[in-house]
Amino acid sequence: MRNSAKLALAAVLGLTVAGCTQNINPTDTDRAIIGAAAGYTVQTVRGKDGGDRLRGAALGGAAGALCDDVRLCQ
């Protein structure tokens, strides 16, 4: 599978997971966990190693925890 197809698949999976929180009123912790999982998955699909996967998880977790503060995921 080509890298662009892998990235598209990871984006679709990430959006699918994000859609699961629509009716549960997630907390910052819930969004951080979902973001970290999505960031880790994207790096895994891209074929990156452990350090890059952890960076993806950290960035995804931070983005998930802070997304409601900038009115992105309300």
Strand proportion, as a percent range, falls in under 5%
The helix/strand series, from N terminus to C terminus, equals HHH
How many domains comprise the coordinates? 1
What is the count of helical runs?
3
Helix percentage: over 70%
Shape: globular
Nearest-integer average pLDDT: 77
* Structural class computed from helices and strand pairing: mainly alpha
| First-to-last CA distance | 34 Å
Q: Biggest sheet, in brief?
A: none
**Radius of gyration from the alpha-carbon trace, in angstroms:** 12 Å
Low-confidence stretches: none
Q: Care to count the β-strands?
A: 0
Keywords: Signal
Protein name: 17 kDa surface antigen
Signal peptide: 1-18
Organism: Paracoccus albicereus
Please describe what this structure looks like.
- Residues 1-18 form the signal peptide.
- This is 17 kDa surface antigen.
- Keywords: Signal.
- With 74 residues, the protein is an all-alpha fold.
- The chain has helices at 3-19, 28-45, 50-66.
- The protein has one domain (3-66).
- Helix 1 (3-19) packs antiparallel against helix 2 (28-45) and helix 2 runs antiparallel to helix 3.
- The model has no long low-confidence stretch (mean pLDDT 77).
The gist of it:
The protein is an all-alpha fold and 74 residues long. It is 70% helix and 0% strand. The protein has one domain (3-66).
Task: Please specify the SSE layout and strand pairing.
Elements: H1 3-19, H2 28-45, H3 50-66
